[in-house]
Amino acid sequence: MSFSGGEMTISVARSSAIVGFTAGLHLRVVTALSRLVADFESDVVLGWQGKQVDVRNVVSMLTLAVDYGAEVEIQATGRDALETVDAVISFLITGHQY
């Protein structure tokens, strides 16, 4: 989905991923993920078990206590939403940055 406002186009991208980190989303992982999304313009939200948090907020992400093998939802809103979601999914599944 995309919205056009003058010259700027804002897109919304959504997907899900299975967490591939054996210890789940712990401090080191969420810190790396937060740094990864800092390279993108889009706002990014991660959802699990009915809760949603801003991926740039490390403390909020830790409160989710996401386990290994959990399926999480990712949503990005902004000009680079699709690229942002792709990068987050790649990171969550493989542990490698885009």
How does this model look, in words?
This protein has 98 residues and is α+β, with helices and mostly antiparallel strands. Helices cover 33% and strands 34% of the residues. The chain contains 3 helices and 5 strands. It has helices at residues 27-37, 58-64, 81-94; strands spanning 2-5, 8-18, 43-48, 51-54, 71-78. 24% of the residues are buried.
The assembly state of the depicted protein chains is: single chain
Mean pLDDT: 91
The end-to-end distance, rounded to whole angstroms, is 23 Å
Output the helix-strand order.
EEHEEHEH
- Reading side by side through the largest sheet, how are the strands ordered? 1-2-5-3-4
Helix % is 25-40%
State the shape: globular
Largest sheet: 5 strands, antiparallel
Given as residue ranges, the uncertain stretches (5+ residues, pLDDT < 50) are none
Rounded radius of gyration (Å): 13 Å
Number of helices: 3
Pairing-aware structural class of the strands and helices? alpha+beta
The percent range for strand residues is 25-35%
How many β-strand stretches? 5
Quick description:
With 98 residues, the protein is an alpha+beta fold. 33% of the residues lie in helices and 34% in strands.
Tell me the layout of helices and strands.
Elements lengths: L1 E4 L2 E11 L8 H11 L5 E6 L2 E4 L3 H7 L6 E8 L2 H14 L4
Antiparallel strand pairs: 1-2, 2-5, 3-4, 3-5
Descriptive terms for the model:
3 helices, about 35% helix, five-stranded antiparallel sheet
